[in-house]
Amino acid sequence: MKISIVADERQMRRALSELSHIKNGAGRAMASALNRTLTGLKSDAAKEVRNSYIIQHKDVLRVLKTTKATKTKLVAELKGTYDKISLSKFRVTPKRTIGVRPKKGLKVTVKKNEGGRMQHGFIATVGGGVQVFTRKGKDRLPIKKHFGPAVVQMLASDEVDAKIQRQAQERLNKNMAHEIDRILQGHGSGRGKVSIF
User: Fold this and answer.
1) Residue 178 contacts residue 17 (beta carbons within 8 Å)
2) What does the domain layout of the chain look like in residue ranges?
3) Tell me: the pLDDT tens digits for 124-146?
4) I need a labelling partner for 59 at 20 to 30 A (CA). Which of 18, 25, 85, 106 fits?
5) What pTM value is reported for the model?
6) How far is CA 39 from CA 116, 180, 192, in A?
7) Per-residue DSSP letters for 58-85?
8) 2 has which bridge partners?
């Protein structure tokens, strides 16, 4: 998954017109607006995941990668990795090690209103973190670590993609007006608040 944020022609014309008398003014305003929008977009994407899945906001943010815009490269990007997230990051009961494997296994809920039991699952602390495992056979070893879906899978919906893109455009419009006004004020050229595009 990759979402690119770019200023449209109308936004670029407005920035160039308002800031033509300031060196690199338009580029600075657009880059800053794009990067502010990127931060909001990342949060919006995490929120969309949490609307359907039982996972903490911070665990989603951790696997969303961003590439910021610069005044010479006016595009900001949000990327979701294909790395699957440890099953322990979702709702698992019991959540702590109790010394023995639970007789009824683990209760696992990845997606809201959809849960079930992992009959032979157990919790173990490995590398300082709690993980979900099952044994591959009757012996204690080997064991298998379990994962939930990747963020790109959780966001794999045309409806969600369209919603995030729409939110990004709304944010960019507001941020562009804010950044143009900020640069004008800082340059002593303030002409009142710049209207939203």
Assistant:
1) no
2) 2-83+152-186, 85-148
3) 888 778 899 998 888 888 999 99
4) 106
5) 0.79
6) 35, 18, 26
7) HHHHTTEEEE--BTTB--EEEEE--PEE
8) 79
